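Re-run with default settings, no changes from the original entry. Doing this only to confirm the output is reproducible before filing.
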Amino acid sequence: MKKKREVFFFILVFIFTIYPDTVLVDNNFKYKLYLPNNWIREIKNDSVHFFVDTSFCFKGLLCITRYLIDTSIYKTPTEWTLSHFLAYKIWVQYSLDPAGVILYSNNDSTVKQGDLPAAEAYSIFFSSDTAIGIWAEYIRYTAYDKFGYELYAISDTQDMSKNIGTYAAILQGINIVLPLKVKKNSFCRINFNKSKNILLCDLLGRTIFFKGQHFRRKQSGIYIKYQKENLNNRNKDLELIK
């Protein structure tokens, strides 16, 4: 069983890649996704997004579901990820109808969603309803800041056996977009006799240090003027623009 697990992991991670035709960025949901040709997004609501192939070459349904993390229960995003991954495994193993079997699971440090810790599994389900039959699911969990994410692909077993590499590559390539916090800056000209205590900073307003000390410059020129948040905006630092 261990050998099969390692082989399956190799297939998921190292063999299959996709050649993206569409780069989809959603700033509200906070993710970036690469989709092959003919794939589209269907928005169910502000917490669930589906992705399907309109050419029907791929029968699977891909989904991103976002959850608001209850910080009174989960102290860190990683704790949410591992807790929900464990709950999923327990549900699959002890569910009676449908009955489930986990063929592969992994939550060690090698599993990442971009730079975020993640956990993943591949399972097969058997329903007593012959109209439903047998299906397979590849699922991932990750979290960042105040949101947890469940990413999965689901389809019949024949389609999943054939196209799991494509589905896994799409889901593994999803990047949870992190908002960039930039201070509100302005430009001004300062003459030398007015700039007695200027700290050299980068464009994000971070003070540059040299040998443990603030790097200071005293000369005329055009500077970026930005607010120092930790001093209640009473002081301003400046950066020379050459």
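The chain has a mean pLDDT of 76. The radius of gyration is 25 Å.
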